[in-house]
Amino acid sequence: HSLHRLQAQYEAARLDWTLGALTVSSTGLRERELYTLLNLCSDLSSAPGQLTWQKALQLARNPRSRMPMATFSQLAQSLQGLICPSLSREPDEPLTLTIPDVRSAFEKLYLSTEEDRARAHLVLAVLLWVRSDPHSKNTFLHCDPDTLVHLPAHLMHCGQWQPVHFLLSSYYYLFANVRHGLLHPLLETFIQFVKRIEAGGAQWTKPSDSVFPAWCRSTIRFLVSSDSSFVFTIVEWSFECDLNELQACHSFLKRHAPLLSHWPTLFVQQALNEAADSSARAWAQALVEEGGANVVRKVNYTTELQRETGELVSTFQRDLSCMALSPGGGCVVVGTEQGTLHFIHTHTNQEVKSLVSSCDGISSCVFLDEGVLSTTSYDGQVEVWDINSGFRTAHLNAHSNRITGCDVSSDKKHFATVSLDSNLKVWSSQRGKQEASLLTPCPLNCVSFDPEGGRLAVGCWDGAVRVWDWIKQEKWM
Question: Which residues pair with 324 in a beta bridge?
C-alpha cells in the first residue's frame, strides 16, 4: 500500500520505471544516481516513438526535464523509510534492497512482466554507461570496478548485443578492466557473449552485404505496453555477425593473460608489441602519441620474432597444488591447497565440474582411468573419485604424514604413493588395497613407475634416487 501511494504521488516522474531499475541493481543506487534515473525515465516516457538504446543514451546525456530538488528530497526520504526504516544511513550510501520481503514487494510491483525487466535493465545500463564515459569519448577512463562488471550484464539482460559487442571490441574498455584487476570476469563476459551469438546461429565471419555493415544482422521484437503508451524494442541478433575484431580482442587477452593477471600496467606495452597490422598495436600507438602511456619500443622487432604463447584457461581464488591430464587428453584436473578439485574441458577451456575433498588440502593427483581420479592429501589420506558421478569411491588412511607424490602404472592397475613418513606404498587401482610397502632411510619427495610397471624410482630428501622392484620386494639400486 505504501508503494502504491508513493507511486501515485510521483506518477508523472515515472517512479515505477526508476524503482524497477533499483530492483535489478545488485549494488543499489546513490541519491544522485536515483535523481538522474528519475529525470531520464520522465524524459523517456514523454518521448515519442520506440524506446531504443540510442534514444535512451541521448536523453541521458542531454536531459530535458529536471525534478525540483525539494520534491526529490521528499521522495528520497520517503523511499528510504520504505526500504529500510529502522536502519541509519551514512551520507551518500546507496539505497539497496537488502530486506527479502521488501525486495519481493518491489519485484512483484515493478518487474512483473518481461517488458518491465528488460526496460529496467536498459535504463540502468544507460546510467552505468554515461557514468563510465561522461564525455562521450569512449575511453572509459573514469570507469569504476562495479560499473565495469555490471554494465555488460545489464546490457545482455535487455538484449542490447550491439553495445556489448562495442565494449568487448574496444581496447580502452579492455584496458580499464585489466587495470582494475577484472581480467577473469572480462574473459567470462566474452564467453557469455559468444555463446549467445552462437545460440542465434552466428558465425565468426564478416557479412558481405548486411543492413549493419559494421555490425551484424538482426531480428527485432517489439513489446507493447499494456496501455499501448509506448513500444519497447528488443534486438535479437541472429544470422552472421562481424566478429573479427571481437575475436582479435579475445585472442589478445587470452594470449597475454598470464602476464596481465600479475602486471596489468603492461597492457599498453603488450598491445604495442603486437603485429604491425593489428588493431591492438594501432590503438596502443595512438594512445602513446597522445601521451597516455609510457612504453618501450623494440627497434629491431619483426613479426618473425613473435612466438605463440599459451592461453589462460582459468584463474582461481585459492592456491593451486597439483594438476593432471586425463589419459584421453580431454580433461585437466587442478587441485588446491584448500581441498577442492576443478575439472576443465581442454577443448572448450571451460570448467565443467568441481569437487570438495574432506582432506586437509590436495597434495597430488593422478588419473587411474579416463573417469577415475586418485588424490592424495597433506594429512596422509588417499581418495578415489568417480568423475562422472562426482562420488568418492574409496578413502584410505595411507600415510602418517604428508603425501608428497603419486604415480600410476602404464596398465593403470596399480598406483604408488610416497610421503614424508619415509614410506613408499603400492595400491591396487581396482580394489583400493595396499599391495606392497617399503620403508626408506629418509622422507620421500616423488615417485615414478618404469614403463613395465614392475619397478619404482623414488626421490629422497638425502639427494639420492632409489629404485625398487616392488613385485619381487627387493631393492634394485
Answer: 333
Model pLDDT, residue 13: 58
Strand partners, 475: 468
| CB 202 within 8 Å of CB 215 | no
Backbone Cα Rg of the chain = 29
Q: Within a 13 Å sphere around the CA of 289, how many CA atoms are in the beta-carbon half?
A: 6
Q: Which of 406, 416, 386, 261 is nearest to 322 (CA)?
A: 406
Give the 3-state DSSP-derived string for 70-123, with helices as H, strands as E and coil as C: HHHHHHHHHHHHHHCCCCCCCCCCCECCCCHHHHHHHHHHHCCCHHHHHHHHHH
Please give the residue that has the higher pLDDT: either 70 or 298: 70
> Side chain identity at 217, as an amino acid letter?
R
pLDDT at 209: 36
Give the Cα separation of 311 and 326 in Å (integer): 19
CA 317 to chain centre: 12
Cβ atoms 417, 405 nearer than 8 A: yes
Q: Phi and psi of 304, rounded to 5°?
A: -70, -20
pLDDT of residue 224: 43
| pLDDT greater than 60 at residue 239 | no
- DSSP summary character for residue 409: -
* Cβ count within 10 A of residue 335: 26
Q: Given CA atoms 41, 42, 45, 48 in this order, what sign does their dihedral have?
A: negative
Asked whether residue 398 carries a pLDDT value surpassing 80, the answer given is yes
- Phi and psi dihedrals of 356, rounded to 5? -120, 125
Say what the pLDDT of residue 465 is: 92
The alpha carbon of 156 is separated from its chain's Cα centroid by a whole number of angstroms, namely 15
Q: What is the DSSP string of 294-321?
A: -----TT--GGG-----------SS-EE
Q: Which of 417, 337, 345 is nearest to 374 (CA)?
A: 417
Highest mean pLDDT among 3-12, 211-220, 316-325, 450-459: 450-459
Instruction: Provide long-range contacts, Cβ within 8 A and 24+ apart, for 207-213.
Output: 207/239, 207/240, 207/241, 207/242, 210/240, 210/242, 212/162, 213/242
State the Cα–Cα distance between residues 7 and 2, nearest whole angstrom.
9
Q: What is the DSSP letter of 471?
A: T
CA distance 255 to 123: 35
Integer distance in angstroms from the first to the last C-alpha of the chain? Answer: 86
